[in-house]
Structure formats: structure tokens, C-alpha cells
């Protein structure tokens, strides 16, 4: 009887505080996908703005439906062979009680499912930045559906699902360095090698059309990332979520400074694009490591990522792959850096008692991190490349060259991001009879007209 009483006392009960906290975190992670759309949308040329926004936004629709139908079951169902999960109760989320708790935690299964859903939505959207200006929207939508099913759902199980091989090996990935960023970055590299470069790559200027939009997107990502990272502890009863929150801010600030210093030394200026990119690099790198390092360690992780990612974005010009918006240089490289640095900076006093090399733990955890990093990288690269190749050779992934030159927004969406015709100039002005002017005002009227038309 005493044993039964003890067991009952140890059973978790629903926590309204943790449930509310996790719902807020889920909403914050959802905001990251539109934030990413703005971030990427500002970095492309005017003629590709809407397409870039839509490539992120469509993931909210496709992945949400797939997650409910079978994605949650594949990622977090009962393990099979350390490779995939399955639970028929999770199919359609139909066999779950509204007060049923998630696996030893104090939040409902529904809350955990929707939190992880937002991760699944964001990850394929990250890939889109590498493919700017040149991919058919229907082909991209189909790629998302296939990639989420064959790549993301299994990898999420490996890393976070009970019984997954990386989880059982002891790979530390607090919030997605391997499952999200390395996974998406490796996929991006594979796809761009299949579909090729943009027309005019390394010849025509391809500068961002709206740096304020880039900064807005980076700010929304930074804001949403607190939910992404701190929420991954599924509560904050022991302070680990608070540690992750602090480290998210600290590492990101350090990465911004490190990127800007490198940029000033290398290129002679502190740019807004560099500040925004440095912030994202720091956020990526601290994502796997933030629950196991101290704030001082977070500064080191962020600074190292800021410099190395800034260096990495230039590799596309050296090696000739067209990573349009530096997904490989920031997300793949940043994810690798953050994941491997766990093996050096883990203190043994955060999410687990595992210590890294600098805290007396030797290299044991570093080798585990290597296994997780390169296992996910290889799988995502190979399978993503095969998916892209099949689509490219069947329905075709790229728009026609003429359509790419004229602008993918008009071709794929029949819209433009900015319409000045209703502001008194352009086509709308030609439908209005020209007012009569005397000789004294004609020159001023022509000048005003020319200014409006420009």
C-alpha cells in the first residue's frame, strides 16, 4: 500500500503555469516563420519579394496538415528500430484525451504536439532562402511535403523521440541545432547543387532590396527564438528554461558584435545586413548548446559562431554554389559550431550532469556530438538531393530563364510587392487628361511629373 501511495504521489499532474507558458512559447515559435519570411523577403530583389514571402508562408499550411495526419506520430510515437516512431492514437490527433499529459511532464499532449508542430513548420521554410529567385512554387510546395515526411519527421525522432538513436546515444541538442538547422542547411546545399545557379550569379548585382525589412525579420526571429529555446525544456520548474533564455540573449549579442568586428576588419564597414545575419548566426549556434553552457560559455559560442559564419558566407563565391541568402553559411555552419562546442563548454550543471572538455569531462561528449552532427548532415544531404533530383527531372523545379529574368513574382503569383501606379504616376496617370498650364508653370509640372514617374 505504501508503495502504491508513493507511486501516486510521484505521478505528474497538470500544471496550469507550465501549460500557459508552453502555449505562449508555441505562439512565439509560430511567429518565427513570418519573421523568417520578412528576413528573407528583404534580402532578395524587388521582383522576387512575394515569392520569397510565400515560400516560407506556405509551410504553415502544408506542414500543419501533415503533422496532424501522421507527422506527430512518426516523430514522437513509439520507437521502431531507433529510426522512426508510430502511435495510432496520434494519427489525426484523434486518440488523445484533452487532459492527457505528455510523457512524464505537466503539460497536455496537445500542447507538446502544437509546440513541436511549429518547429516542423519552420525547418523546411529555412531551406527556401537558398533557392531564391528560381524555383517553381508548385514544385517547392511538393518538395516541402516530401521533405517533411521523409527527412524532418524521422530526424526529429532520432534527436528528441524516446528510442531515437541520437537520443539514446546521448547527443545533446536542446532545441534544434541538428534536427532543425543542420538538417535544413544540409538540405539547402543539396538542392542548390541539383538546380544550379541563378541567372547572372557573380555577374549581376543581387543586393537586398529592403534592409529595413531584413532588420524587422531579424527582430521577429530574435523575439520568437526565446519561445523556441526556453520552451524546449517544457516548463521551468528547475530553472533550466531560464538559463536557456539568458543564454539565448547573451550568445546572440556576442555574435552580432563578433560579426560586425570581422566585417569592419575584412570589408571596412559595419552593415545592417551584417548585424542581422550575426544575430541569426548566434541564435542558431546557441540553440543546441544553451541548456548546457554558462552565460560566459554562451558568449564564447556566440562570438565563435559570429566570426566563422561571417567567413563561411563567402565560400559560395569561392566554390561556385549559389546559396542565395546564406542558408548554408549561417544555418548549417552555425548549427555545426553550436552542436560541437557543447563538447567543450558543457558545464555539467545545466540540463544534465555531462561536462565538456573545458570542465573536466574529456572528449567523450564531443565524439557523441560529432556522431549526431554528421549523421543528420549526411542523411539530410543525400535524401534531400535525391528528392530534388527526382522533382527536377519530372515536373521541373526551376522556372524558365526568361521568367526568372523578368521576375518570379509576376510569373508564379501574378502580383508585385510594390505598386506605385495608384500614387499619381505611371499607368494610372495616363488615363487622366493633362491639366492646362501656362508657360510659367510648365517647367515645374514636367519636373514634378518626372519625379513621380521615377
Automatic annotation (TrEMBL):
Q: Is-annotated flag, keyword Nucleus?
A: no
Alphabetically list the UniProt keywords: Ammonia transport, Cell membrane, Membrane, Transmembrane, Transmembrane helix, Transport
Classify the source by domain of life: Bacteria
Membrane-spanning residues where? 20-40, 52-76, 107-127, 139-160, 180-199, 211-228, 240-262, 269-290, 296-315, 327-346, 366-391
Name its cellular compartments. Answer: Cell membrane
Residue intervals of the Ammonium transporter AmtB-like domain: 21-418
Q: Which SUPFAM superfamilies match?
A: Ammonium transporter (SSF111352)
Report biased composition (Basic and acidic residues) as residue ranges: 441-454
Q: Which Pfam families match?
A: Ammonium_transp
What is this entry's stated membrane topology?
A: Multi-pass membrane protein
The record's section on InterPro entries has:
Ammonium/urea_transptr (IPR029020), Ammonium_transpt (IPR001905), Ammonium_transpt_CS (IPR018047), NH4_transpt_AmtB-like_dom (IPR024041)
**Would you name any one GO CC term?**
plasma membrane
Which residue stretches belong to region Disordered? 422-454
Which residue positions does the secretion signal occupy? none
Q: Could you give a GO molecular-function term held by this entry?
A: ammonium channel activity
**Family of the protein in this entry:** Belongs to the ammonia transporter channel (TC 1.A.11.2) family.
What functional role does this protein have?
Involved in the uptake of ammonium/ammonia (NH(4)(+)/NH(3)).
Q: How does it assemble?
A: Homotrimer.
- Name the chain's protein: Ammonium transporter
Q: Which organism is it from?
A: Streptomyces ruber
Amino acid at each position: 500500500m505504501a508503495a502504491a501511495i508513493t507511486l501516486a504521489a510521484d505521478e505528474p499532474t497538470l500544471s496550469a503555469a507550465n501549460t500557459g507558458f508552453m502555449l505562449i512559447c508555441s505562439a512565439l515559435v509560430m511567429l518565427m516563420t513570418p519573421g523568417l519570411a520578412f528576413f528573407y523577403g528583404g534580402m532578395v530583389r524587388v521582383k522576387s519579394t512575394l515569392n520569397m514571402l510565400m515560400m516560407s508562408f506556405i509551410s504553415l499550411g502544408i506542414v500543419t496538415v501533415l503533422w496532424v495526419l501522421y507527422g506527430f506520430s512518426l516523430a514522437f510515437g513509439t520507437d521502431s528500430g531507433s529510426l522512426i516512431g508510430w502511435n495510432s492514437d496520434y494519427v489525426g490527433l484523434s486518440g488523445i484525451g484533452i487532459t492527457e499529459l505528455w510523457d512524464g511532464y505537466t503539460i497536455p499532449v496537445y500542447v507538446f504536439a502544437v509546440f513541436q508542430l511549429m518547429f516542423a513548420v519552420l525547418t523546411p521554410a529555412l531551406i527556401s532562402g537558398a533557392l531564391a529567385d528560381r524555383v517553381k512554387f508548385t514544385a517547392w510546395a511538393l518538395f516541402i511535403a516530401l521533405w517533411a515526411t521523409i527527412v524532418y519527421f524521422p530526424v526529429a525522432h532520432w534527436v528528441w523521440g524516446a528510442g531515437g538513436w541520437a537520443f539514446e546515444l546521448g547527443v545533446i541538442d536542446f532545441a534544434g541545432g541538428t534536427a532543425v538547422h543542420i538538417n535544413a542547411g544540409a538540405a539547402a546545399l543539396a538542392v542548390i547543387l541539383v538546380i544550379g545557379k541563378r541567372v547572372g550569379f557573380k555577374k549581376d548585382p543581387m543586393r537586398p532590396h529592403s534592409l529595413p525589412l531584413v532588420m524587422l525579420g531579424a527582430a521577429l526571429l530574435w523575439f520568437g527564438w526565446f519561445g523556441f529555446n526556453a520552451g524546449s525544456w517544457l516548463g521551468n520548474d528547475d530553472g533550466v528554461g531560464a538559463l536557456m533564455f539568458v543564454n539565448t540573449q547573451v550568445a546572440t549579442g556576442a555574435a552580432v558584435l563578433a560579426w560586425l568586428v570581422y566585417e569592419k576588419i575584412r570589408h571596412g564597414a559595419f552593415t545592417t545586413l551584417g548585424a542581422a545575419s550575426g544575430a541569426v548566426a548566434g541564435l542558431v549556434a546557441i540553440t543546441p548548446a544553451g541548456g548546457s553552457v554558462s552565460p560566459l560559455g554562451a558568449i564564447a559560442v556566440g562570438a565563435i559562431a559570429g566570426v566563422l559564419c561571417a567567413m563561411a558566407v563567402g565560400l559560395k563565391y569561392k566554390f561556385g554554389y549559389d546559396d542565395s541568402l546564406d542558408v548554408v553559411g549561417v544555418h548549417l555552419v552555425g548549427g555545426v559550431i553550436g552542436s560541437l562546442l557543447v563538447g567543450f563548454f558543457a558545464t555539467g550543471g545545466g540540463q544534465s550532469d555531462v561536462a565538456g572538455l573545458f570542465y573536466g569531462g574529456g572528449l567523450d561528449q564531443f565524439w557523441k556530438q560529432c556522431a549526431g552532427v554528421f549523421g543528420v548532415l549526411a542523411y539530410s544531404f543525400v535524401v534531400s538531393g535525391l528528392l530534388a533530383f527526382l522533382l527536377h527531372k519530372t515536373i521541373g523545379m526551376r522556372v524558365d530563364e526568361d521568367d526568372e529574368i523578368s521576375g518570379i513574382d509576376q510569373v508564379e503569383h501574378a502580383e508585385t510587392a510594390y505598386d506605385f501606379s495608384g500614387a499619381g504616376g505611371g499607368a494610372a496617370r495616363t488615363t487622366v487628361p493633362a491639366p492646362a498650364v501656362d508657360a510659367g508653370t510648365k517647367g515645374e509640372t514636367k519636373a514634378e511629373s518626372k519625379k513621380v514617374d521615377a
